[in-house]
């Protein structure tokens, strides 16, 4: 009876031992293999599983550290990027609120009367340069051109008649058969017919131009932002039809107080912060208007964004940082900062390259993706640039 009970006790001990090892190692061994190790028919597979578990348990007992596979996430390359905290000489800036404006924004209006026949573009569409935006009924303008053609033909017939009359009177005047008054009347009639024909030709050119105004084209490539009419509505000269702007040529307009305007004028450099956490954009150029608001004493400053700087639209809010000097600041890369609710921290690497979470107090975002650190870390310390992988390793 004793010999029969020993195998059952041995299997139970094996299963319990395998379960303990799995708990310590964080289930790094297959659960199915551990379960098989606790059964009588586990065989050689169970022995091999328990042997592996025993070896890992020995490593745990020796080092006192629970291993995560063969290497930690930092060592596997998820967070090989490491930065050293250091002081840098950066631009000292003055922040000011600004609004995005389009350097080129236009509203096309009707120059001829007529009904709107077709509209080819809608708000939000990209409109190429010289593209036909809409068409107005050109029949009134075309009929005016036809009427001018008839009047021009009449004027040409009249000019031909007065020319012949002038030639006859001129010949008779040379022979002293007509008076000076008759000659003057013929000459005046001939010159009046010439002038009338020139006037009608000019009027016909205006009528042709009016007929061309029935086709509304884009003055430059851009985006349509607003449509003021619909198909079937009556267009009259001066009525707005559509508004558009060029998204590749934008500027940020800000108002700078009198106390900072001299420093802004001296440095003539600025950075544009389009969104929190995003890299700053260096201004292409700055224009300071030569006048101040008499009520607030602020001066309007126009900061021109780089070409094709992003999907920005007129009216959006940005922060402009005008450079006023140079300061020495302790900075870390923005990518290394971990933000969780009210906690702002970084993972600092110790001498064993183990990440340790440390809370810091940060200042303003700096150009080139850097963030000023006011407290919580010292220059020369190493930090992880992948806080997500460092969090997995720390846990």
Rg computed from alpha carbons, rounded to a whole number of angstroms: 43 Å
Specify the number of helices.
7
- Counting DSSP E segments of at least 2 residues, the number of strands comes to 22
Distance between the termini: 49 Å
Number of domains: 3
Q: How do the SSEs run, as a string of H and E? A: HHHEEEEEEHHEEEEEHEEEEEEEEEEEH
Query: Structural class from helices and strands?
Result: alpha+beta
Describe this structure in words.
By secondary structure, the chain is of the alpha+beta class. The protein has three domains: 2-63, no CATH class; 82-101 and 248-394, Elongation Factor Tu (Ef-tu), domain 3 (Beta Barrel), CATH 2.40.30.170; 107-244, OB fold (Dihydrolipoamide Acetyltransferase, E2P), CATH 2.40.50.100. The protein is 35% helix and 33% strand. It is built from seven helices and 22 strands. It has helices at 2-24, 31-37, 43-63, 139-174, 180-212, 258-267, 387-394, and strands at residues 82-84, 86-102, 105-109, 114-119, 126-127, 132-136, 215-217, 222-227, 234-235, 240-245, 250-256, 270-273, 281-282, 285-292, 299-304, 317-333, 338-340, 343-349, 355-359, 361-366, 370-375, 382-384. Strands 2, 11, 12, 13, 14, 15, 16, 20 and 21 form a nine-stranded antiparallel β-sheet that branches. Strands 3-10-8-5 form a four-stranded antiparallel β-sheet, with no helix packed on it. It is elongated and about 125 Å long. The chain starts with a helix and ends with a helix.
